Description:
- By secondary structure, this protein is of the alpha+beta class.
- It has three domains: about 35-45 and about 55-115, no CATH class; about 125-165; about 175-335, Reverse transcriptase/Diguanylate cyclase domain (Alpha-Beta Plaits).
- About 65% of the residues lie in helices and about 10% in strands.
- A four-stranded antiparallel sheet has the order 2-3-1-4, sandwiched between helices.
- Mean pLDDT is about 75; it is low at about 1-10 and about 50-55.
Amino acid sequence: xxxxxxxxxxxxxxxxxxxxxxxxxxxxxxxxxxxxxxxxxxxxxxxxxxxxxxxxxxxxxxxxxxxxxxxxxxxxxxxxxxxxxxxxxxxxxxxxxxxxxxxxxxxxxxxxxxxxxxxxxxxxxxxxxxxxxxxxxxxxxxxxxxxxxxxxxxxxxxxxxxxxxxxxxxxxxxxxxxxxxxxxxxxxxxxxxxxxxxxxxxxxxxxxxxxxxxxxxxxxxxxxxxxxxxxxxxxxxxxxxxxxxxxxxxxxxxxxxxxxxxxxxxxxxxxxxxxxxxxxxxxxxxxxxxxxxxxxxxxxxxxxxxxxxxxxxxxxxxxxxxxxxxxxxxxxxxxxxx
Length: 338
């Protein structure tokens, strides 16, 4: 609650004080009359009681009145103590609790507290300091929370960036070999259990070393980057593409047949052939493909390792056939030249 809240209007305070003074005067007058009457009555009873009939030099009513006056003074002293101290301590405690809970402004912390009134100013100052410290702590906690949130956000971005670096190939943007090893086995087993077809394609760039040796590694990096971009733009959203290192790539096609894999291989091969036409090299790079499917594996040997072996075996069969064709073509050229 704001400490600057308006105070309760005190317009009727004089009228209230006059009413209390008149009431107190009435009570005192009634008390004196009642006390005098009670003393007369008690003195008459005392004189009428034979065992205690005494010859006194002063009237019995005066003795009784003195005793009642003493009792009244003692009772008044006790009441004054309660009013000035006991009740004020209880009242001050309640108001302090309300002020601490923010339900009572500091300025409304009672004008008087009996014998505790000298402590009012000190307590008000302590309460103001307490509220100031509490506001300062609240502000510091808010700033701390904002800083923690900012640093947490920055840390999450850094972690996300590191995760991306740990699973992505920097040059091509495809997943790396580590990601292939982590997810391929699970994907193979899931497709085998659900009886869903799965096609795996291994890709190798032929004569890539000749390109690097002739035009430099920058040209080789440009070609690999282009191959990655063409693969990403040609596969479906549920397909996965990986660069396994160097000039080798793997494409995993869930829910795809061998014919669909061969169609994708032909499309990628044609795109790369068109891309490398301007290159001034003895033999232009081209793609070799090896395709394996789950349906071709025998029961009991269904695994990511066996599927990779099957695709790799077919890839090297294609590369061996191409090398043999190149040698044959070179031999014919030499024969014609001779």
